Automatic annotation (TrEMBL):
It is found in: Cytoplasm. It comes from Roseovarius phycicola. PROSITE patterns: MGMT. The active site is at C120 (nucleophile). This is Methylated-DNA--protein-cysteine methyltransferase. Its EC number is 2.1.1.63. Transmembrane segments: none annotated. Involved in the cellular defense against the biological effects of O6-methylguanine (O6-MeG) and O4-methylthymine (O4-MeT) in DNA. Repairs the methylated nucleobase in DNA by stoichiometrically transferring the methyl group to a cysteine residue in the enzyme. This is a suicide reaction: the enzyme is irreversibly inactivated. Keywords: Cytoplasm, DNA damage, DNA repair, Methyltransferase, Transferase.
Amino acid sequence: MAQGYVTTELGHVRVTCEDGAVTRVRWGHITPKIEDDAPDPVLDEALTQIAAYFAGELTEFTVPVSVSGSAFQKQVCGAMQDIPFGETCTYGDLAKLCEAPAQAIGAACGGNPIPIIIPCHRVLGANNLGGFSGSGGIEDKVWLLRHEGAAGLLI
């Protein structure tokens, strides 16, 4: 397992990689530390891509990811990865696509282990923003949507 950090507008973002793929992204009240891990090219690329995303220079992540969890969790995360930068969809939209109840979609979005790279912030409620499991809660979701220019509904 390799971990690294990048500083962003949402705080220090910690990325974890295992077996050649990103497995976890977390941010907020994380203290960066010097890592003793062996060099990891996937981790280096993930950190570079996250920094470029926050700098407004990247609209699509290409690093490999590995989602832990049930087949359903993996299916929902795959569907979220297909939501283009700057666009949104609803829990109901994903429910139809995945043939599951919207509440199950919401739970799977909340269980996303790789937010930002797997853009659960782009999934909204039918009449509201929905939730967000990131460290800063709904405020971080709003920030990410505005950053992507998907915030017409928020202005």
